[in-house]
Amino acid sequence: MSNSEYILEMLDVSKEFPGVKALSDVTIQIKKGEVHGLVGENGAGKSTIMKILAGLYSNDGGKIIFDGEDITKKLNARTAEQTGISFIHQERYVVPHLTVAEMLFLGVEKTKTAFKFMDRRGMVKLAEQMLEEKVGVRLSGNMLVSRLTVGEQQLIQICRALMSNPKVIVFDEPTAVLAKKESERLFHIIRQLKKDKGVIYISHYFGEILDLCDRVTVLRNGKKIDTVAAADVTIDSLVTMMVGRDILEQYPPKDRKAGETILSVKGLTHRKEFHDLNFEVRRGEIVGITGLMGSGHDKVGIGIYDSHDITGGEVEFKGKKMSYISPDKAAAVGMGYVPDDRRGLGAIQSMTVKENITLACLKDMTRHGIISDREETRAVEGQIEKLRIKTPNGDVVSGNLSGGNQQKVVLARWLSDQSELYILNQPTSGIDIGARADIYKIIDEMAKSGAGVLMITQDIQELYGMSDRIIVMFRGEAVLELETTEEDLTDQIIVASMGGGAGDEG
Fold this sequence. Notes:
Blueprint lengths: L5 E12 L2 E12 L3 E5 L6 H8 L7 E6 L2 E2 L6 H7 L1 E4 L11 H5 L6 E2 L4 E2 L1 H16 L14 H14 L4 E5 L7 H14 L4 E5 L3 H7 L2 E6 L2 E7 L5 H9 L17 E10 L6 E6 L3 E6 L8 H6 L4 E8 L2 E3 L4 H7 L1 E4 L3 H5 L6 H5 L8 E2 L2 E2 L1 H15 L15 H14 L4 E5 L7 H16 L3 E5 L3 H7 L2 E6 L2 E7 L7 H8 L8
Helix pairs in contact: 4-5, 13-14, 14-15
């Protein structure tokens, strides 16, 4: 047992990938009994240093001290957990067709008798007991994981982590997909955990960082900028440390001019998510759609782009009725769709930046069935420069880029195809403030070029800051539509409408 005040020390840690210095002599020290925030832009090095801690990457320099012991050489994915370090990831690693008890004890099943038969009844009882004791939730051990809310699935992950009695727990963007009530329950759990553990909390939500954390370490471009007491900083000062400059105004000025209607949605009805939607998007205009989880707002974009689950209504694009819409057909007529899951559905991880960017416009670079490498390279280099994509070149595998740069790659794909309607689903979710400002500028330029933009987001500030018009949905219906220039439009009205409380006020 160490006499040091730190339970975990990552000292002068360095890591280099081909062509990229990901970490340069970074030191992070975690005290037992504290929540330690870790912030930085996408690409700042947060993910890399946490993957080193998890044993997924080896470090090129520096050392890792855990509870007084140098564990640098023996650290790998298995020994990290055995040593006493657990991770709660943004992605929920659950198996939907298992029961709560089966998921909780997956890999460490309880058995009985000399024949090692699984003790299902005992597992169910113990699962229910542990969930209530460790994370304060009552769930049936026999319930299927697929029937749980996102927050409940995350609680199972936390309970699994606590079963091994870790000394350090890392929370990586844990509230990115949680509702407010679920987030508050998580914060209560974290405050309880820090009484006898060290907690690392990674988030792009600065309010959470300042409210929850005791100290905060700021990374920028693979280097540590500072470690500060959360009580001594403000959101503005954190942002300045993160990006090396003041971002006083994230959003570009709304000097766009709306033109003719490019998209008209009439009575659009989804199989189960929404019904009787009516709205228009004009050229040169950004229309924002929002709502709480379960309101159906997040399915509107894909419903326009792919009518597989649409049961009624119609979509007119550039004055022509679209009788049946598939992604191929939508792309061919000038629609571009950026999904909320950029890793799973957006940038193809195994493809290079070049291949991802030109995926939608290869036909324009092909002569007699052969792709012109010169034209492809010229187009890609132009997009990399224009969108400020942080990559050494277009031949880098997209999966090696940060989240913000992957999002820029997906946007570049549709810009290269010169789309006339951009449907953007959660375009900046999980992306740092510096990359957000870049993406907002790109979206603004999309509209100014004469395209229409439909932006789906739950970020109220983003909705207000970027949209020309706002549509709020509640339980599958559009309950409010207002121009953002209207004097009576406030954050309170938008939030109330999301909860069904102000639908008649517009």
